[in-house]
C-alpha cells in the first residue's frame, strides 16, 4: 500500500502522544461541565492553507460557534505557532444572544516564500464540551507568495498547453465524442521566489468540454494545479486535488506523482518527469490517482504516457502524415498523402498482403536502415499504384524531418484490381414480412425481417430510415453519419449464408428504406431495399422536426386550440427512470390571455405542459403564429414563450421558474420564444426547437420547470406531443417504447440540477423568415432482435446485439475505468 507522507506524519504524531506514558492504571475522564458554552469551530469557508500575494492584506478570518448563547463571553485560547511573532490573533468574543462570531488572524511580518503554521485550541472546560464530536481546535498554515505570468522571451506568447492523460484513466463517457487526451490552453504562473514552481488552472469548463466533445454539466472548483519543476530532471506533481467530482459517490479526484516528495519511498525509485526545451513530460504510470471517498487507495495515472505541458511559445513539431485510398478503377489505385508542415519527406514502398501495425512498424525500420524505397513525396499529393496483379497490398511510408531523421511511419492496406480483372461485391440482402413472432405482438404492422448473405464480404454498414424523411439525402453521407457497422460475428454469419435479424418498433402503414454499404476489401457497393408495413399509421410513434409541420392552412385555428382538452404525451427526464420514454403525462388546456393579446398577436395560456399541478399559475404562453405580423414567415400553430415575469407560478410553496434548455447549453435556462408547436398530422401537435434558434446553433429540445435557485428540478419535458382525444390511436406498444427510449439524444444525468443560471431572454425579430436547413433522418435501428434465417437457408442463426452510437453524456454518466495500484 502506498503511504502519503503527510498521512504518515499525522499517524506517527498520534502514536507518540498516545504511547509516551508507562502508567497502565486506568483513570476515568473528567466530566463535562453541564453549564459549558459548547464553543466549537464549524466547517470553515476560509481555507486552512492560506496563500496571500505580498501585495495583498495579510489576513484571514475564521468562524466560531457556540451551543449556549445567552451570555456575552470572551473565549480563552491556547496558541502554538511554528515561529513566534508572526501571528496576531483577534480575541474570540460573543455578544449577548450571538450564536456565531468571527475572528481575524493577521500575519504582516510573514516573510515572502516561507510557510508558517498555527494551531488554536480551546481548552477551558467552562467553554467547551470535552467529549462532543465538535472540533475545539483549528490548525492552519499561511504563506505569502507572489506569482508572475510565464511568457516566451519577447512576451508575445502568454499561454501554454496541457495535454491530459489523467482524468480518462479514471473516468470514461459512453460517447463517440469522448476525447481521452484533450489538450487545452491556459495561463501558467511561476512563483516569484521559486523558479520552476508553476501553477495553472487546468480542470475547468474548457477542459471538460474538450474531454466530452461537447458542453457538459459537472462539479468542479476551478482550482490551481501545481507542478514542481525546480529541478528540470526531477519534475513532479505535488499531492493535490483536481477539484473535479465526476461521480458523486467518489468525491473529488486527487493526483500525485509517484515520488519520494509525496510518498514514503526511496528517492531513487521515484518516477520523475523532465523539463526540456520548454516541454514537461512524465513517464507512463508515474502519476497516482486517488478518490476522496477511497482515501489511501491509489490508481494508475498517465497510463499511456501522454501527459504533457508546453510552456508559452513552445511549438511541438508535427510529423503527421495521413493516407487515404481510393477504390481500384481501370487498373489504378490512388492514395492521397497529406503531409504536416514539419514533414520534409515521406519515402515509401509497397508490399504484398495486409500488414498489421506491428509488421508495418518493423518493415518501416528495415526500410530506413536499408534506405530502399519505391518512391518519395515531399508535399501533399497523390500516389498512383498501377501495373500490378490483382490482390491485397500495403503501402508503408517512413516519415523524415529536415535533418533526415526518421520520425514516424504510416501505412495503409488496399485491394488492387488489375485492368482486365473484376472483384464484384457478392451480396444479397432485403426486408421481408413475417408472422413468426406474432405471438409476441411483433407483426408486419410494426416490424420487418432483415436478411443478408454473400461471399468474401469484409465490411458492412447499414441503417433503416423512413422513406419520406430521406428527401434526396445522399446514401453514403447518411451511412457515414449514422450507419451501424456489422460485427465480426455478423460478418461470419453473412459469409456463411445465414444472417438475419428483426427490426421492431416500426410504424404502421409506412414506407421504410434500408441503406447498406458492403465492401470486399477491393471495392464497396451501396445498396437499398424498401418495405411497407401493414396496419394503421400512429403519429405517436414518431418524432418530428420543424420541416414536418403541415402547411399553414392545415394548422389548427384558435378555436380548435382552446375548445379541445388535449391528451398530453412527453418524455419527463426528471421522473427518475433509467430509460425515459414518451408516455401519457395528463391533459393540456388552452385559454386566451387577454392581457398579453393584441389586435396583431393572439396569446394563449397553456396549462399542463409542466406535468405538475401548480398551487398557483404555471401556465406557459403560446403566441399564435398564423396571420401574426411579428411571426411572419414562420409556420406552425404556437410559439411557446417563457418569462420569469409573464409565466409565474408556485408549486409546493416555492416560486417556480419555467424555461427552456438547449442541447448545446444544458446548464442554462433560457426565456423567450424558444420552442414552436405545430400540427404534424390531423389532431396531433408536436413541439420542436425554434427554427431561428437553430440558426444560432441553439437546439431547444427541453422544457424546464424548477425553483429559481436551480436546486430542485420538478420536471424536464422533451418530445412533447398533444393529441385530440377524438383522434388518439391509444397507447404506444412496448417495442416502440424501447425504440423511442434508445433514440434519446440526452440522458437524465445531463440535467441534474446543480448550477442553473437564468440566461438572457431569447427573442424573435419581427418578419424574420428562417432558412430551410436540411435535417438528416434518424437511423431507426436500435436493438435488433434475433430472427430465424431466410427460408431458403439453414436456421442456425448467429446474431449479436447492435446499438446506435451513444450521444454525448454528462457528469453523472461518467463511469469508473481506473486500474488500482496493487497493495504491497
Give your account of this protein's structure.
By secondary structure, the chain is mainly beta. The protein is flat, with a radius of gyration of 34 Å. The model is unreliable at 6-27, 738-760 and 789-812 (pLDDT under 50). The termini are close together. An 8-stranded antiparallel beta barrel has the order 40-41-42-44-45-49-50-52.
Based on helices, strands and strand pairing, what is the structural class?
A: mainly beta
Strand order of the largest sheet: 40-41-42-44-45-49-50-52
Largest sheet: 8 strands, antiparallel, barrel
What is the number of E strands?
A: 55
Low-pLDDT residue intervals, each spanning 5 or more residues? 6-27, 738-760, 789-812
Average pLDDT score = 85
Distance between the terminal alpha carbons, to the nearest Å? 5 Å
Percentage of residues assigned to helices: under 10%
Amino acid at each position: 500500500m502506498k503511504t502519503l507522507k503527510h498521512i504518515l506524519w499525522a499517524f506517527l504524531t498520534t502514536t507518540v502522544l498516545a504511547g509516551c506514558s508507562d502508567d497502565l492504571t486506568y483513570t476515568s475522564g473528567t466530566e463535562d461541565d453541564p453549564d459549558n458554552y459548547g464553543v466549537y469551530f464549524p466547517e470553515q469557508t476560509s481555507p486552512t492553507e492560506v496563500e496571500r500575494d505580498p501585495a495583498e492584506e495579510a489576513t484571514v478570518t475564521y468562524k466560531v460557534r457556540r451551543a449556549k448563547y445567552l451570555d456575552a463571553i470572551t473565549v480563552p485560547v491556547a496558541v502554538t505557532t511554528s515561529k513566534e511573532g508572526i501571528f496576531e490573533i483577534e480575541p474570540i468574543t460573543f455578544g449577548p444572544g450571538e450564536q456565531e462570531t468571527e475572528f481575524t488572524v493577521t500575519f504582516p511580518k510573514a516573510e515572502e516564500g516561507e510557510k508558517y503554521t498555527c494551531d488554536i485550541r480551546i481548552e477551558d472546560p467552562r467553554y467547551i464540551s470535552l467529549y462532543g464530536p465538535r472540533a475545539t481546535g483549528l490548525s492552519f498554515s499561511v504563506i505569502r507568495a507572489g506569482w508572475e505570468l510565464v511568457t516566451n522571451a519577447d512576451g508575445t506568447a502568454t499561454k501554454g498547453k496541457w495535454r491530459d492523460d489523467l482524468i480518462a484513466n479514471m473516468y470514461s463517457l459512453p460517447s463517440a465524442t469522448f476525447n481521452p487526451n484533450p489538450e487545452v490552453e491556459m495561463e501558467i504562473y511561476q512563483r516569484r521566489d521559486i523558479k520552476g514552481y508553476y501553477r495553472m488552472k487546468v480542470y475547468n469548463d474548457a477542459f471538460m468540454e474538450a474531454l466530452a466533445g461537447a458542453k457538459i454539466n459537472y462539479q468542479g472548483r476551478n482550482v490551481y494545479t501545481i507542478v514542481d519543476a525546480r529541478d528540470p530532471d526531477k519534475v513532479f506533481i505535488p499531492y493535490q486535488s483536481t477539484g473535479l467530482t465526476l461521480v458523486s459517490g467518489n468525491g473529488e479526484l486527487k493526483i500525485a506523482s509517484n515520488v519520494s516528495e509525496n510518498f514514503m519511498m526511496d528517492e531513487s525509485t521515484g518516477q520523475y518527469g523532465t523539463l526540456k526545451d520548454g516541454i514537461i513530460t512524465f513517464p507512463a504510470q508515474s502519476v497516482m490517482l486517488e478518490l476522496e471517498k477511497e482515501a489511501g487507495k491509489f490508481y494508475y495515472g498517465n497510463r499511456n504516457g501522454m501527459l504533457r505541458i508546453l510552456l508559452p511559445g513552445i511549438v511541438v513539431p508535427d510529423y503527421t502524415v495521413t493516407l487515404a485510398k481510393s477504390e481500384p478503377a481501370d487498373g489504378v489505385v490512388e492514395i492521397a498523402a497529406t503531409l504536416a508542415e514539419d514533414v520534409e519527406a515521406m519515402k515509401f514502398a509497397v508490399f504484398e498482403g495486409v500488414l498489421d501495425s506491428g509488421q508495418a512498424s518493423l518493415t518501416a525500420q528495415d526500410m530506413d536502415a536499408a534506405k530502399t524505397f519505391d518512391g518519395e513525396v515531399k508535399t501533399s499529393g497523390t500516389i498512383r499504384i498501377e501495373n500490378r496483379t490483382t490482390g491485397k497490398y500495403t503501402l508503408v511510408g517512413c516519415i523524415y524531418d529536415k535533418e533526415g531523421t526518421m520520425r514516424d511511419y504510416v501505412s495503409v492496406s488496399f485491394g488492387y484490381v488489375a485492368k482486365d480483372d473484376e472483384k464484384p461485391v457478392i451480396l444479397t440482402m432485403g426486408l421481408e414480412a413475417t408472422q413468426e413472432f406474432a405471438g409476441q405482438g411483433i407483426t408486419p404492422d410494426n416490424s420487418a425481417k432483415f436478411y443478408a448473405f454473400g461471399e468474401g464480404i469484409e465490411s458492412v454498414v447499414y441503417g433503416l430510415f423512413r422513406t419520406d424523411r430521406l428527401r434526396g439525402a445522399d446514401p453514403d453521407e447518411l451511412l457515414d453519419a449514422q450507419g451501424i457497422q456489422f460485427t465480426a460475428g455478423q460478418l461470419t454469419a453473412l459469409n456463411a449464408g445465414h444472417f438475419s435479424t428483426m427490426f421492431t418498433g416500426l410504424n404502421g402503414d409506412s414506407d421504410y428504406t434500408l441503406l447498406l454499404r458492403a465492401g470486399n476489401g477491393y471495392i464497396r457497393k451501396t445498396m437499398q431495399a424498401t418495405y411497407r408495413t401493414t396496419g394503421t399509421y400512429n403519429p405517436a410513434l414518431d418524432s418530428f422536426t420543424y420541416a414536418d409541420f403541415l402547411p399553414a392552412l392545415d394548422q389548427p385555428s384558435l378555436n380548435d386550440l382552446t375548445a379541445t382538452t388535449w391528451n398530453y404525451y412527453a418524455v419527463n427526464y426528471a421522473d427518475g427512470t433509467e430509460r425515459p420514454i414518451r408516455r401519457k403525462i395528463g391533459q393540456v388546456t388552452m385559454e386566451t390571455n387577454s392581457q398579453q393579446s393584441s389586435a396583431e398577436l393572439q396569446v394563449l395560456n397553456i396549462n399542463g405542459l409542466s406535468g405538475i399541478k401548480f398551487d398557483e399559475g404555471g401556465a406557459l404562453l403560446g403566441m399564435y403564429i398564423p396571420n401574426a405580423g411579428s411571426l411572419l414567415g414562420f409556420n406552425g400553430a404556437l410559439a411557446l414563450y417563457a418569462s420569469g415575469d409573464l409565466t409565474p407560478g408556485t408549486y409546493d410553496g416555492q416560486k417556480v421558474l419555467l424555461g427552456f434548455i438547449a442541447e448545446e447549453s444544458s446548464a442554462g435556462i433560457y426565456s423567450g420564444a424558444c420552442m414552436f408547436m405545430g400540427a404534424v398530422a390531423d389532431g396531433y401537435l408536436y413541439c420542436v426547437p425554434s427554427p431561428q434558434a437553430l440558426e444560432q446553433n441553439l437546439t431547444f429540445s427541453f422544457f424546464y420547470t424548477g425553483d429559481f435557485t436551480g436546486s430542485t428540478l420538478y420536471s424536464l419535458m422533451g418530445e412533447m406531443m398533444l393529441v385530440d382525444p377524438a383522434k388518439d390511436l391509444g397507447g404506444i406498444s412496448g417495442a416502440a417504447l424501447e425504440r423511442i427510449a434508445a433514440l434519446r439524444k440526452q440522458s437524465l444525468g445531463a440535467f441534474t440540477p446543480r448550477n442553473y443560471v437564468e440566461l438572457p431572454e431569447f427573442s424573435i425579430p419581427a418578419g424574420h423568415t428562417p432558412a430551410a436547413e436540411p435535417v438528416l433522418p434518424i437511423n431507426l435501428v436500435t436493438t435488433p432482435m434475433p430472427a430465424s434465417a431466410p427460408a431458403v437457408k439453414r436456421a442456425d442463426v448467429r446474431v449479436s446485439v447492435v446499438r446506435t452510437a451513444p450521444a454525448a453524456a454528462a457528469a453523472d454518466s461518467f463511469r469508473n475505468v481506473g486500474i488500482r495500484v496493487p497493495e504491497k
